[in-house]
Amino acid sequence: MALTASAALAGSATWTTWASDHPTAPVGPGSASGSGSGSGSGSGEEDPPVPAVGRVWPVGVRPGVLRGWDPPATVYGPGHRGVDLSAPPGAQVRAVAAGRVFFAGPVAGRGVVSIELSGTGEPPLRTTYEPVRASVKQGDEVAAGAVVGTVEATGRHCEGPCIHWGLLRGKTYLNPLLLLPPWLLNGPTRLLPVLGVPLP
Predict the structure, then answer these.
(1) Phi and psi for 78 in degrees, rounded to 5?
(2) Which of 167, 70, 81, 155 is nearest to 126 (CA)?
């Protein structure tokens, strides 16, 4: 059963809020620092918050979230270091934000595309998509929404066809849904008529 994006974003047990640019944006455990991320930097310093620089979903318009972000409590503990989005084989995979292709090729028998996102600090944020048949190569500059490949039918990560979408800063895994601004995550706002007030 697919989750809504909002439910997937709010699925972790502990939440904090950004106090600066995003006073109401949720940050999951391990999202703002290495703690609980499953692969922290170990420096003890907090990473900067994830900026909502996404301009499109990786696949479709608002794909179903088959499995949400579930960071492990320890480096080798069970969990899910990304989100799984419903996507049929052959579906176009797009860069959620502008950047440079960091890697494009097979890893353990699955096609992977990884993109360093422009203007996201040092080290830069890096998105990953798999399984993907890449149509880009390492070093290519890509715009937000640019097609970077198609979903392969060889993935065994999900029970059904899907794409696994990940986000890292250095070696720290983060929640990729944090890249999406509210208007993209939740869909457009719709105004409803008020009872007794005539339409213009």
Answers:
(1) -70, 150
(2) 167
pTM here?
A: 0.72
Which residues have a Cβ under 8 Å from the Cβ of 74 and sit 6 or more positions away? 38
3-state helix, strand, coil in the chain (%, to 5): 5, 30, 65
- φ, ψ of residue 141 to 5 degrees: the values are -90, 135
CA 88 and chain centroid, separation = 18
Residues with Cβ within 8 Å of 34's Cβ and at least 6 positions away in sequence, in order, are: 40, 41, 42, 43, 47, 172
The model's pLDDT over 13-28, given as tens digits with 9 standing for 90+, comes to: 222 222 223 333 333 3
Q: How far apart are CA 41 and CA 105, in angstroms?
A: 26
Structure tokens at 185: 């995550």
